[in-house]
Amino acid sequence: MAHSILVLNGPNLNLLGTREPEVYGTDTLDDIVAELTTFAEANGAELRAVQSNNEGELIDALHDARNWAAGVVFNPGAFTHTSIALRDAIASIELPVVETHLSNVHAREEFRHHSYVSGVCLGVVAGFGKHSYRVALEGLLSHLG
Predict the structure, then answer these.
(1) Catalytic pick from 63, 81, 101, 113?
(2) Is 133 a catalytic residue?
(3) Reported CATH class of domain 3-77+85-107+117-144
(4) Whole-angstrom Cα distance, residue 45 to residue 28?
């Protein structure tokens, strides 16, 4: 049976490929999702990808995932450091969520060192660029069995 996985991306990730390429790389979000979809299919999983710059839409996507997903790979972007509402949404859906970041947030500005969502996530992957998503998905699929 294939696991259905939500790949959820927060604010400004729609600008990947052109936004601060020295920090985030030159791959677009579509490039990353395409590679991740290929990997997922090879490992018996199917993906749905959602990106939003709006906190409420991210919360709605998490709530909706309760009805169809086995787990979530989630890059909350800057909301990582500001959103108690996203933390509460993750806690409420009772699905395993892997917090994912392209950059090593702990090697960046001080305000990026705290995550409101880490404490309710299965794990955190950060600092491997686009490969962070694959590592997160591998960990999630391993957890799901």
Answers:
(1) 101
(2) no
(3) alpha beta
(4) 22
